[in-house]
Design a protein that fits this description.
Blueprint lengths: L2 E2 L10 H12 L10 H21 L6 E4 L2 H16 L5 E5 L4 H12 L3 E5 L9 H7 L4 E5 L14 H9 L5 E5 L11 H4 L3 E5 L10 E5 L25 H12 L3 H20 L4 E3 L9 E6 L4 H10 L2 E2 L13 H5 L4 H5 L1 E5 L6 H17 L4
Parallel strand pairs: 1-11, 3-4, 3-5, 5-6, 6-7
Antiparallel strand pairs: 2-8, 7-8, 9-10, 10-12
Amino acid sequence: MEHYLDNSATTKVSKAAAEKALELMCENYGNASSLHSLGIKAEAELENARRKIAKVLGCESDEIYFTSGGTESNNTAIFGAVKALKRRGNKIVTTSVEHSSVLEAMNELENQGFEVIYLSPDENGIITAEKIKDAVDNKTILVSIMTANNETGSINDISKIQKIVANNNSPALIHTDAVQAFGKINIKAKKTGVDLITISAHKIHGPKGIGALYIKKGKRITPMHFGGEQEKKVRPGTEALPLIGAFGVAVSELEIEKNYEKVSAINSYAKIKLSEIKEVSFNSKDNALPYIMNISVKGIRSETMLHYLAQNEIYVSSGSACSKGKPSHVLKAMGIDKDTADSSIRISFSKFNTKEDIDILAKYIRQGLETLVKK
């Protein structure tokens, strides 16, 4: 029996979302830009999905722009903001624990001559307000800080950033990668005050290949792509309507408070069961998003334990799925020693997980400790 505990990498698509995608591929298959009746029906589906997402994010529907996923949304936000504001400054503030789609974009901007400041987290994985205040000035044109970390679940108080930037007389646009947080905690665009928010479907039981970027009304970024009139030219090209429709359904199925309570209970149970194994230590802190738990199993390399668990149909991660098994830059930035980081695994939950999943996980971690070759 399968025990899937890698939901931060991707989630199982809900049946209703999959059925909507099939409907929009085989029945209501028109191009949303076409002027005939099939096109008009397709456009109605497109805008219906946009409204559903906007409602959950607490914004207007015309502030939602569809993309191919989190990576494209992050790149569009970062390069688009910098290009739009480059005459006003040369400085960018981000963190050392961002997702690779942000860090690689920052690396490219450094190659182009921009100054990028990488803020390090405290021992809890949090970027403090003081560090942001010290880094942002009147030459800063972009601040990009994730809401919830994809490896440890550490949560940053994004609403504080806007106030700090405003108080420092900075022209910066504020971006947050909320891919791991959206649909799991209540994020309201207007309340956070940020200008750009990245979200993705496949972390909330929607399909891969579709995401969105919130752009606050009145703010402008320069497009990265050129073509048609779709998405108000921010992201031109024929919209992937089957994926967009499925995204809308996945969002409409969200029960944020109910699922948070259920996952929190599973997380607490996992802490109890795993704490009984003396070789296990916890890298995620008590303030972390309950959907993500990062642990280390002393003496066993991450990949070794991961493959052993997978052989027994227990699926976890050795960090971010996008890192392809590379050493964790997040744990290093948090000051966690190399041996502990090299034995870390990420367990990530969804509403479908049960206590049985945790019991089986704990059982096979124990067995792995008894049978696997120590590093």
